[in-house]
Amino acid sequence: MAAAVGEVDNTIDIPGQRAALILGGHDFGSLTAAACAPWEAPRPPRAWYVAFTISVALLAVLGAMIFYLVFNGVGVWGLNNPAGWGFDITNFVFWVGIGHAGTLISAILFLFRQKWRTSINRFAEAMTIFAVICAGLFPGIHVGRIWLAYWLAPLPNQMGMWPNFRSPLLWDVFAVGTYATVSLMFWYVGMIPDLATFRDRAKTKWKQVIYGLLALGWTGSSRNWHRFERAYLILAALATPLVLSVHSVVSFDFAVSVLPGWHTSIFPPYFVAGAIFGGFAMVLTLAIPARALFGLKDIITPRHLENCCKILLLTGCMIGYAYLIEKFMAWYSGNSYEGFIFRARALGPYAWAYWTMIGCNVLAPQLFWFKWARTNLVAMFLVVMAVNVGMWFERFVIIVSSLSQDFLPSSWDIYHPSLVEILTLAGSFGLFLALFLLFCRFLPMIAMAEVKTVMPHADLHAHPHAHVAPHRAFDYNPDEFDAGRGGAAARRSPRGPS
Amino acid sequence: MKHGTKPRPPAGPELHGLLAEFDSPGALLTAAERVRDAGYTKWDTHSPFPVHGIDEAMGIRRTRLPWLVFVFGVLGCVTGLALQWWTNASDSREFSFLPAHLQGYAFEIGGKPLFSLPANIPVIFELTVLLAALATVIGMFAMNNLPRHHAPLLAQERFKRATTDRFFVFITAADPKFNATRTHHLLSGLGGSAVESVAASSEPAHLPRSLIYATTIVICLLLLPPLFVAKARFTKSAEPRIQLIRDMGNQERYKTQQVHALFVDNRAMRPQVPGTVARGDLRDDAHYYEGKVSGDWATTYPPQLEISESFVRRGQQRFNIYCAACHGLGGAGDGIVSQRALARDTPGWTVPTSLVNQTVIERPLGHIFNTITNGIRTMPPYGDQIPEQDRWAIIAYVRALERSQNAHLEDVPVELRPELR
Predict the structure, then answer these.
(1) Mean pLDDT of A265-277
(2) Mutate to test the interface with A, among B40, B70, B123 (most CBs of A within 10 A)
(3) Rg of the Cα atoms in chain A
(4) Which residues, at least 6 apart from B101, have a Cβ–Cβ distance to it below 8 Å?
(5) What local confidence, expressed as pLDDT, does residue B63 receive?
(6) Rounded distance, CA A209 to CA A204, Å?
(7) Which one of A67, A234, A377, B27 is least enclosed by Cβ atoms within 10 Å?
């Protein structure tokens, strides 16, 4: 992994001039070729095979652990009576949080017209899908009798029973289910034009058939593009409040209960910030090796990585603030149980996990105040790996420390994970990485159609010389839209889509 | 093709339209404006990305998709609200005509309100977003005629670059203003890099045979499980249900009279170990423990019990704890459990027996003792909850209730009779 030295530095801001988002002097054709290269190469790089082998081995471990769990019951986990949630729910919250960065990049940054998102949004969205798959796995298997998991859904059944809609655990079913569905649609819809590119560039009959089916017969028609862009905008507008709601609802699983350390109204914003924080760390974890491995350094530029680092710094400070306010409220409320649990977190049996969390989540990202850290790949990678670890420990600390030491000392019991739980967590990374590696090889990793709109060539009004960014892109500009709508052009033609 | 009056191209397959290629989005935009101004209506432009300003240049009207999304969003909102009210807060008695598995009911949890908006908002919100998003995608697909099995343009070798770096104008022959020569002339004059005619291919692109066969086989196989489920739903079987994974209630165990290879006598049942006394074997006083005297129901209290006021009061207290919930405080069979069941028309509810009617009055003491011990009809056994002495005390209290409920004036002491009205 080479440091940023030697790459073209587009992280410098020159007043009055927008920095280039795509380097290497690409035109539409060469950009498409560069983005399709990982797919068009006869075989993936050797590192891909190594990573894929490891991932599939871990995936096999996951399968074996789930098989073992289902045939033996949740007793194979290290859960005990006060700590009825351990790695299972920790992993669930961790993975569902990872997904949030993908939706943030694809939806929220889209609404804010952050054009740099176009280079990384496709694989961040893919990351979301795969993270949500991993997340959905854990509540599914932790119910014990997984063949009864359909009881979670309001399905008419022979028992004549309905789920309890006043329970946050049921809200979770709806929130995560909706999130998975909408993320999948968002990802797939955005991918259709690029799948059509694959179809048109495919050399073999089978590739033409498969990508032809996936591309749904997309021809790049402007009448189709018009509705496509509106649909994409609407999906972004729907996904934005959705993503905020999902981790809020996940936090309700804790905040609505009365356990000390859980029963607090700061949880929804604190969880959402943490989710974006952890998600961006995972985006960088995947982007830094992927851009090197697949030759995408012109498209995923140092500027993109630096922007991600800035978001990490911001959200890292937000959760550091949340940790502080939690402590303050524990003291200020005068509630002795609340006070106890926060003392116990920092000094009790899980203090090692707590200080790991503080070090990784609060202290490590502070490095990003310095520009050299935001542009040095090694420093960046070390920090984001720390954040990945820290965010997992955050959920572990919240869940396990509150459960194992609640109101009544006689019912306390310390929780120790079993080997099965540890291997299940490792296996979920196998599932995630295996899916991601398959995606890198077989699906368009770069949103080519979107990247083309932010290239200088797409700008009809700009001067021909390169590296002057366009002022319009694949986005929605209400002013221009209204001008066009009332204009003579629109009236002249009675035919059009509707 | 509907342009019967127009001159056709000389020979070859039927003409689908004319395609012009451009190198840049700017050229496409200029070309689109000129085609629009020439009055064409059935035409389109194709580009690898949405070209800014093309909507105005082509005169594309704004799509009505947002209205569809709005309608479905409202629908999702109403669905979320109705679903939660129906399943958690509705009154099943008002909808008793529905099958039981579709009825909602008042879902009482910890005394919380049945229907409170704050608790219902998350699900309402998620369903609103879900339905709106589904409407967005499905609506966009439907309006764009996607998925499209076949488009003649896709057969055009040149057109393959429409998804990479080339820009196209395509005018269909179905356009009222279409004229092979004049339209060709118009397109040639737009400054594009090429103009070519697109033939309406008669045979649609076909999928590979093997793919069609494989898909058919997979679909057929996928239909099998639902068919087995449907069969199981509508047929009866004497076999126990199949359990792939056993529930705890159905684990392996030995039953009486079964063979067990571990023991010399091959019996799963083990005989009593010599010199030991089994639980319950010391209870040889049939009168006290079973309410029986030489095989018949006892008609007297066991001699070891002293029937006193305190004994009857003990019986009253136990009766009010264990019996009154169903039989009522007065023993008339009108306890609160029964009242509630009757008020709700609970199907199959058996009304508890009145303990103060003639049948029970005439019943021997031992018979009542046996009923308390072992239960009867839908009444469960209470033998392991109420000790023997308390069971006899309850009987004594039931006898007192019977007397009091069927009392005559003669039963009241003479000195108290003036207080009665």
Answers:
(1) 93
(2) B123
(3) 24
(4) A156, A157, A158, A159, A160
(5) 93
(6) 9
(7) A67
Going by C-alpha positions, the residue among B421, B294, B293, B306 that lies closest to residue B369 is B293
Structure-token pair, residue B256: 């009486």
- Flag whether A437 is in a domain: yes
Count of structural domains within chain A: 1
> Does B196 lie at the interface with A, CB-CB under 8 angstroms?
no
The torsion region of residue B12 among left (phi > 0), alpha (psi -120 to 50) and beta comes to: left
Q: In whole angstroms, how far apart are CA B364 and each of B292, B357, B370?
A: 10, 14, 10
Question: Closest by alpha carbon to A396, among A96, A85, A95?
Answer: A85
Query: For the residues A38-63, what does the mean pLDDT come to?
Result: 95
- The whole-number pLDDT of residue B369 equals 94
- Residue B1 reports pLDDT greater than 50: no
> What confidence category does residue B4 fall into, taking pLDDT thresholds of 50, 70 and 90?
very low
**CB within 8 Å: A221 and B36:** no
Pairing of strands B15-22, B292-293: unpaired
The answer to whether the Cβ–Cβ distance between A209 and B47 falls below 8 Å is no
A453 within 8 A of B48, measured Cβ to Cβ? no
Q: Are B365 and B300 in contact (CB under 8 A)?
A: yes
Contact A165 B69 (CB under 8 A): no
pLDDT in tens, B120-133: 999 999 999 999 99
User: In 3D, which of A325, A364, A360 has the Cα closest to residue A342?
Assistant: A325
Residue range B146-175, pLDDT digits in tens: 898 778 888 888 999 999 999 999 999 999
Collapsing DSSP to helix, strand or coil, A83 comes out as coil
pLDDT category of residue B413 using cuts at 50, 70 and 90? confident
Give the domain extent around A155.
45-476
pLDDT tens column, A161-174:
999 999 999 999 99
Domain boundaries, chain B: 15-201, 286-406
Could you give the CA distance from residue A155 to residue A163 in angstroms, rounded to a whole number?
9
Mutate to test the interface with A, among B88, B101, B120, B129 (most CBs of A within 10 A): B129
Residue A203 forms contact with B (CB below 8 Å): no
ipTM of the complex: 0.88
Q: How far apart are CA A371 and CA B285, in angstroms?
A: 94
pLDDT, average across residues A481-493: 41
Tokens of A294: 């697949």
A377, A382, A388, A393: CA torsion to nearest 10: -160
- What's the full length of chain B, in residues? 421
**Greatest CA separation for chain A:** 81
What gap in Å lies between CA A151 and CA A133, rounded to an integer? Answer: 19
Which residues of A are less than 8 Å from B24 in CB distance?
A: 457
Percentage, residues of chain A above pLDDT 90: 72
Tell me the three state secondary structure of residue B14.
coil
**Measured distance between the N- and C-terminal CA atoms of chain A, rounded to whole angstroms:** 51
The token pair at B267 is 């019996």
Exposure of A342 in the CB half-sphere (CA atoms within 13 A)? 20
Torsion B251-B252-B257-B263 (CA) sign: negative
Q: Would an 8 Å CB–CB cutoff place A165 in contact with chain B? A: yes
CA B96 to chain A, closest CA, distance in angstroms equals: 13
CATH number assigned to the domain comprising residue A65: 1.20.1630.10
- Whether chain A has a CB inside 8 Å of the CB on B244: the answer is yes
How buried is residue B79: exposed, middle or buried, by Cβ count under 10 Å (0-12/13-18/19+)? middle
Check pLDDT > 50 for residue B5: no
Domain presence at residue A364: yes
B296 phi, psi to nearest 5 deg = -105, 160
d(CA A420, CA A416): 11
Residue A498 lies in a domain: no
Per mean pLDDT, which of A409-413, B190-194, B407-411 is the most reliable? A409-413
